[in-house]
Structure formats: C-alpha cells, structure tokens
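Q: I'm teaching a short session on how sequence maps to structure, and I want students to see two examples side by side rather than one. Could you give me a first protein with its sequence written out and its structure tokens following it? Keep the formatting plain so it prints cleanly on a handout.
A: Of course. Example one:
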Amino acid sequence: MSIAILIGDPPADSALEDHLRALGFTPRRLEAGASGHVARAARALEGALTEVPAHVPVAVVDADFVGHRHALRLALTDPRFPAAAAPGVLLVRPTGRAALAAAPGEIAGARPGDSRLLAPDTPLPDLLAARLEEAGTTVHRPALGTLVAAVPRTTGERAAAREREAGVDDERVRLDSAVKSRDGFFTTFAISPWSRYLARWCARRGLNPNQVTTASLAVALIAAGCAATGTRGGFVAAGALLLFSFALDCADGQLARYTLAYSTLGAWLDATFDRVKEYAFYAGLAIGAVRAGDDGTIWALALGAMVLQTCRHIVDFAFTESTAPPTPASGTGGGTGGKPADPADPAGRAAALSGRLDRVGWTIWLRRMIILPIGERWALIAVLTALTTPRTTLVVLLVAGGFAACYTTAGRLLRSLRPRTAGPAAARALGILTDTGPLAGAVARLTAGRRRPGGFAAPLWALAAVLLAPAALLLPGVAGAVWTPLLALGYAVCAGLAVAAPATGRLDWLLPPLFRLGEYGTVLVIAIHASGADGGWVNATLPAAFCLVAVTAYHHYDTVYRLRGGAGAPPRRLVLAMGGHEGRVLLVVAASALWAAGGAGLTLTLVIAAGALAVVVPAESVRFWTSSSAPAVHDEVDVPADPTADPTGSRADTPTDDPAGRRENGPGGTRENGVPA
C-alpha cells in the first residue's frame, strides 16, 4: 500500500485521513504542529522518507488540507505520471523518489528570506513540487475545475473552504468527467448520457476497463455471428448487439476515467479490439448475405469497406505525424513554425472559413457527423443491417465513407499548401509508416543522394506506383496477364524512389496512405478478377483476400500505436520477413499471373500468406505490448474535472475515431479522438 505522510495533525473535524485510506494510502503523521514551520517540517520529512521503501509511492499532504475526495484522487492515484500535485498535496512515484529525497534538505537549509525555498505561507508539498520541477521531474497538475483543494490557515478560511466544498457534488463531477469532453454527435447525445452510469455500475462491482473492453469484443463477435446467419431475425439482433457493443466500448473508457485505471495494455486492447470488431462484422455481413442467396461478390464490398476505412485512418495518422509540434529530442517537428495563416493563400482561406464556421455551433456538429466518426458509422451500420440487406449496408457505408474521406483529405491537402518543412522526427515517423520492404529499400539506397528532400517528387513517385498497381490492373485484359509482375516490379521501383530522401515535403504525408491504397487495392482488384473465373476455388479467393488485408492492416495499425507511444518502428526483422508493402504486392500479382487460368493456386497463396502473417504479426505485437518496455499512449489533452466548456469547441475535421484507444493512459504521445477512427 502507498504511504501518505501528513505534515502536522489534521483538525478534529477533518476527513482527510479517511479519504486517504479510501484511496489506498496508509496515513503517517509527521509531527504535531509541523505544518506551520516549513523548515522544521522539511527536516522531519527528510528523515521520514528514508523509512519508506524506494519502490513505494509516497504522498506528502498538508494536514490542513480541505477539499473533495475526487480532487485527492486526481492528484494521488493517476498512474500515468511520475509525480502529481494539487494545492497542499504531492504524489511521487518510485521513478521520482531520488529527486524527492533531496528536496526537503534543500528547503530545510534555505537561508532566511529565500522566498523561493522557504515561504511560510506556502504548504510544504507545494514547495516540494516546485523543487522537483526545477530538478527536471515533470509534475502533473490536474485541472480541478469546481472541485475544492485548499490549505486554509485560519478558522475563517477553513469555514469558507468547507462551504465551497459542500456546494459542489463530488460524485456528479466525477461522473461527468468520466465522459470525454469532445466526441461525435451520436456518442455525445445518444450513448454517453447513459453509458456513464453503466461505467459506474461496473466500477461498483469491481470490474476493470479491460474486462469491459473484452465484453465489448465478445458482444460484437456475437453480433457478427448473428449477421452471418443470413436471416432477418439475425440481422435485427446483429444491429442491436452492435450498438450495445459500442456502448460498452464507450463505457470502458469512461470506467478508466472514472476510476483512473489507465494501463498500457488497456489502451492497446481497446484500440485493437475496435478494429477487430468492425472488420469481423463486415465479414459477418458478407457470410450472411451469401447464405441468404447473394452471390460471392458481396465479399468485394466488405473488403472495399475495410480498405477504405483503413486508408482513411492512415491519412489521419500520417497527416498528424507530419504536423507534430517540435519535440525536445528532435529540436524541430512539423507544423508551420507558429506563423499565422495568410488569408491570401488557399490554406489561409480554408483556416479562416473553418474559424468562422466554428463560431456557429450547429455547423461543428454537422461537420463531425460528415466525417463519419465511429459512433455515427456504427449507428449507420447497425440501423441498415437491421432494416435492409447486407449489400445495401455495405454500399451505403462505402458511399458515406468515400464522401467523408474526400472531405477530410481535401481539408488536409488545403492545409498542406501552406509552406512548411517536416522536422526529422516527423520525417522518421512517416518513413516508418510507409512500411518499406527490402525491394523498395534497395532502390532507395541505390538512388540516395540523387533526389533532394522536399518538393513534390515523393508523392508523385508514390502516385506513379499506385497507377501501376492497382490502377493499371483495372484495364481490360491486364489483371492475370503473364507480364503483370513487371507492373509489380515497377511499383517497387517507384516506391523506392519515393522514399529515397527523408519525407520532409509538405505533401510527403501522402506516402503512407498511397502505399496502403496500392497494396490493399491490388489485393482487392486481383481477388475480384479471380472471382470472375470459373471453378470452385475462386469462390474462396475474396474471403482469403479479406483475411490477408485484415492481418496486414493489423500490422499497420500496430505500427501507428507504437509511434504514438514513442516506441518507434516494429522490429526491422519483422518488416523484412513480411516483405514490405511492395513485396506483398509482387507476391499477389505474381500468383495471379501464374494461376491466371483459375484453380486453387491464387487462393492457396492468399490463404498461406494470411495464415503466416496471422501467426507472426500478432505474436510480436502481443509480446511487445505486454512487455515492460511498452509505451503509454495518451489519447486526450487534460480537461477540467468538471468540463463546462462548450462541447463543440474542438475541430470538426480531426480524425474520426479513436484508433489509438478510447482511454488516455500516458503522459506522452498524441491522440486521435473526436479525431477519426
């Protein structure tokens, strides 16, 4: 159990020690009256700290503290930070214990009149927090909003603080703060008003967020199974269960915020399971449609929906990485260098228009709905599944998703017209996202130094690759021709030329989504072409292609999550073993040319490739995310414990889902929220 060292004796009417015990701390009183003598209290604290094992978190609390239990909870129990503080309260975890051990001696030895170290009216925990920050330890200070956290010294001040405390419902603030401050329209108005109570119900029964996340996955898989029955009753049940799964998906994050039970594993499970749920439901729709009498081409729609959604996410991820702010490590990042928007250029006009629209509340909600975030998307899928056919559901999803993709991508392209240069950290992240394999890597090394960074050469080479595969494969008589591997080799050469220089250009963020489109699109086109041939095996080609793209997309999502956590790329040996995106394109195209007449060859190639990747990729991913070196992935900015700001205050064109996880669980990294998933 953690230790809470009280500086002084709490007043007789204080509930401070009860609050600390309820939060999992063992209170230890330092010495009576010490709270009024900073130097003496610091000397006593210096000795008391030596009695606490180094692996135990320590809280230092002024005995005169008055405030809500939730204010203490926010300062003392959030596991994401090495140190945290509120007025009169300081929590230091083992990683910061060395700095804490040195701080009391510095304060006790301060010269009289040194207000920086020896301020009689300042609580000792506040002085310690300041010293930790000066020593380089990051001290998190949670936004408390209307929650009370004060250290009154007089009877009148204490009475006033107690009155303010009584005027705020601690539990209501805690429950409201469990809901994300910015989310989609459907989630905000149809799910969160009641899912927060579901989260509290789970908390009171001892359930943790990971268990709720797993329950959400189980419900979604049952929904996919219902859709796979191909009956009207099954479709209705699938729609209802999918909505309930989404409610649980919201509740797991709300439970994490309600209990401050953040974890690296939880964020990874949440982000990964979201993808598994949605794509499994696409597969369930396709299976159900075939069982209901639809032809096997429904799998092309399911695969197309998965390709579209994954490419949308990669656009969001890549653009976010390219505009990342400067980091201490790199010294520079993306962005525009803090320059104001020029109303004379297209990017400036777009920013100005967005700003004007932000002042009209309903337009923000409309734009959030247009980008089809996860809540709106799942609601659309659920309603259409229950009321129409799987083919109608997938066609509408493709149309709506395509429009949303055009809207968000156009906005990013306009913003990219503003002159800027991505820094080394952003360029490195974009390079990792390209998933370059040995073939393109060899071309890049051979041509290194022949192309200057920046400009538009990189995206043009990437576009050329996409024109070779899959675009050229759409031409009559091309797909399946014996010479089509030459197109795949051309794709690899163009991909290598695109990454031959660091991705510092203003449009270089387009490289990862273009390569995803090239790879996934090639698999889709080849599978559709093969399914048009005669023979029993071709009926399994599209489902096999669906599985191959699904496991490859998992690898690409996993790469994104690692980048967001600051862990860098997956092991290079994994990328090389998978062949890179250009290697997989060559494999699929070569297989289609080799078995152009039909038969089992192409289907078996897809099945073997999907099976091999399904063993290697998840195994490495699970190993990494369950290891102690796995990063925390922070998914939200800090907001007050009682968010009273206008809920429409976020940009409407940010990413649509929450692929990085609906739980914020680390102080570093970026987030995709209210941002697309």
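Q: Perfect. Now a second example for contrast.
A: Example two:
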Amino acid sequence: MHGGRYWGTAGRRKARRLGGGRGDTGERRRLILVAAIVLVVSIGAGTMVLLRAGSGPETQTPALPPPATQSPPVVGVGDSGQLLDAPDADVAQALDAVTALGATSIRLPITWAFVEPEQGVLDWSPVDRIVVAAEQRDLSILGMIAYSPGWAAVPGAAGLSALAAEPSSPALFGQFAGRVAERYRDRIAAYEVWNEPNSSLFFAPASDPVAYTDLLKAAYREIKDHDPAALVVGGAITSVVDSPIFMNAVDFARGMYDAGAQGHFDALSFHPYHRTTGFAAGTIWPESPIRQLIDIRQLMVQHGDQDKKIWATEYGLPSAEVPGTTASALIANFLTTWQELPYGGPLYLFEIIDRGTGSADPEHTFGLLTGDFTPKLTFLAAQHVLGQEIPLSSEASRFAGKAPPSLGEIRSPVYAVGTSLRQEFEDGTLYETDSGYVVVPPPIAAKMRQSPARPTTQFADGTQQFEGDTGLRAFTSPAGTFLVHGAILDAYDPALGFPVTDEYDTADGRRESRFQHGAITWSSGTGAVVTFA
C-alpha cells in the first residue's frame, strides 16, 4: 500500500492456535534464546461449568487463586488470541519467551464472543488460564475487550469476520466489560476498549467514532464500578488515512472528543505501524504515524487531557514482507525513540509468535518467534535494547536539557533530515547547528520540515535566515509562511512588505515572488526586477 504503510491488522482473530500443524513436541518446539531461562510451570486447564442467566450466582468457572502482586506495564508483547486455546506447553513457552525478551506485560484479547457465546452462558476458563500463567511470571496484563457474539451484534454487519460486527447495544457491551473487571479485579491492571475501531475490518459495518464512543462510555462506567483502580484505555486507533474501509486516525480521535469521550478514558492508544520508515524519521512526512500521533496529542491538550498518555498497544513488522535486518532495526528504533516522548505510555510489540511461519500472507508473520519458537532477528534486537533498559540515543542525549522552557512539551523524538538534527516541541522546533541550538517557530518549522537546511539566525521580526548556496529566508505573517531565496532575495526591499506567495513560474518562463506591496520577477535576461504595487 501507499508508502509501505501497514494499514491494519486483518486476519488476526481466525487462527488462534500456536504453531498449528506441528506433529511433535521435540526440538522444533524448544525456545532458543540468547539468554533465556526456561521456567517450567504447570498450568491447569480448569473445569468448565456453564450456568444460564438466573440459575444462580455467576460462578460458571471455578474461582481463581489469590492474586499476585503486579507492577505497571512498561514494555509488553501482544497476543492475537492464539494463547486462549493453545496447549499448556505452548502457553508456557510463549510466556517464557516474553520474560526472556525482557518485557513485563502482555496484551491479551478478552473476546466477548468466546467468553459469552450464548447470552448468559459464560466460560472464563481460557482467560483464567492465561491470567494465572502471566501472574506466575510476574507479567502484568492489558486486557483488550472486544468482538461481539452473534446474539449481541448489529445484524448483517461483518468486517474481517462476524466477530468484528459493532455491538447492537452499548449497554450490553458495558455490562460484559463490568463482568470482566469484576472477575479480574486486582489481577488485570488496565483494559483497552475494542481494537482498531477506525477500520471497518474490526468495527463493522463502518468505522464510526460516535458509535465507538458510546461503547467506550458504557465500558468505562462499568469497569470503574467494579474495579476503580483499573485503567481504561480508549481509542486503539490504527495509523491510517481515509479510504473506503478506514477513517483517518486524527479525524477519528477528533470525532471521539466531539461525541463526548472526554472523561471516559484514562489513556488513549494508538498503533503506529509502518513497514519501511523509522518511527522518528517519519516526522517529516504528512500522515505518517508520528505526525498523526503529534496531532492526536495536540487534540488531547486542547481538550484538557494533557496529563493523560498515549499507549502504543501494537507495533510490529511482518517477516513475509520486511527482511529481518530491516525489521530488527525498525523495532530497535521504535523502542528507543518512543521513550523520548513524555506523553508516551506503555508500548506493546505485536505479536509473540507467528501464526503461519513461511506464509506469503504478511498477517501470519508478525511474530517475534517463528512457529517452532525460534527467535527472529526482531526478538534479538528487542531483547538487546530491553537488556540495556532502553538507552537514550546519542542524538537524544545531545538535545537533553537544551530547549528553553518556553517551547513547552516535547512532541517528537529527535530526527534527522540529511545531516540536520531537530526536535519538535509544543511551541517550536529546536535545531542543532554548528554554533549551538536555535529555535524555529511552528509555522516556519512546518514549512522547512523536509529541508535539510538549518537556521543561521534567531527568529526575529517575522523572519529567519537558513542555510542555502544562494541564500534562503523564511517569512511568516497573517498572510502565511513563505520562502524567498536566490536572486529574488538579493533584490528584496523591506518596503515590499512580507511575501504572499512562494516563488513560482510565470506563463512567460520567468520566476516570481509576490509581496504585500509589489513583486520581484527574475529571468536570465533581465535579472531581478522589483515592481511596487
């Protein structure tokens, strides 16, 4: 797709078994890690007891043992649902891999359709089994509550599968979320409401921020009623632009706020997928994941949610499309640069294990491990970074403490354009230059975003000079932000006022810039000619 962007997470809910098709439990299932200690843990399957609504208290599945102490998640790994019906040995190996990676959390789908396939008939045992196994390894859990059973779905709506249909009743969805929070109180630290609702693949029949916000409100109230300490994470928005099946991530977040989402989440979540460009490097490109993230952050600040964070609850690369060396570099870069964002919350790599190693379908190859539990280069890269406690990059270290307080909150990681390093803040961009650090105001920084030129002067009186073989000056005024350079800049007279256009080609082959009080036209025959209006 456009720009190599990963536009969604299609197909993740169908194959829910680890390493399907393997016929033995020998060497192919050993976890080969750089520095792993295999923990042998017995995980009981539990006993399923089904009761219909009204037949007694909700004790369909045996009670769990007392909870273990949890620590807040920092870096985790997501599961696509495979663990819920995987053999015990596979669950053990998968979660041992998470701990060997250095991660401290898992993102676990708590699928409404699987827990309550018939109204009033609930089976918690698959989820219980993973919760206990995670606790035994001191892994915290982000529970992702989503996906409608047929009896609770909008009739005839199907996205990637029938499970993706929008719930017909926000109240019923909220009640289920409350039951989840009640059962896993003090065990699951945070809940994410739905998955990628700005995609009709996961929220059918169409992505709808108003309908999603209704679900979020209902879930928030019920979760807080049953577990006030649990965090509710809203959004789960994937980085996409408008198309017949996707809604632009920023527009979806704006639609949530317009629909009254404020006050009904403790954090927002985002999936900054991109298959070719590093997270920070995308800062120069419109609609890149980091640019959408910056815009969503600005929405939060505008609505008074500056104290809430954005969690990255999915990020990964499919080995079917991205070579291992490239993918490992992108994973390491993401882990490092995400930490530079003061508003960045926990992050989750997607996913633990392939659903189809060797498949041509990229959706089956996002795993950090192959189907026989062999670590990929992405696993080893992430393990290396986490083993160093996510060190600050040398570039970010150089920028630390250099920005004046007036610039406000950091909005982007440090990024490079050519040899030019810079970092965006709430109220300007900080450039590293040969003579020190120089602030560029937002309108000029946006204009110069893709240019490697660095400022050579401080901003003053609406203008700022930049590097350029023929000279380059940026002007900003209520009329807009424009660049003047070369012979036209040499001929510039302040009496012309500020520019109102960039330089452009005229119909007769000349170059021209227009100003508040005139124009400058250049041709090889006449040179620069100043005309006052």
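Q: What should students look for in example two?
A: Point them to this: Confidence is low (pLDDT under 50) at residues 1-59, 68-73. Also worth mentioning: The CA atoms of residues 236 and 269 lie 5 Å apart.
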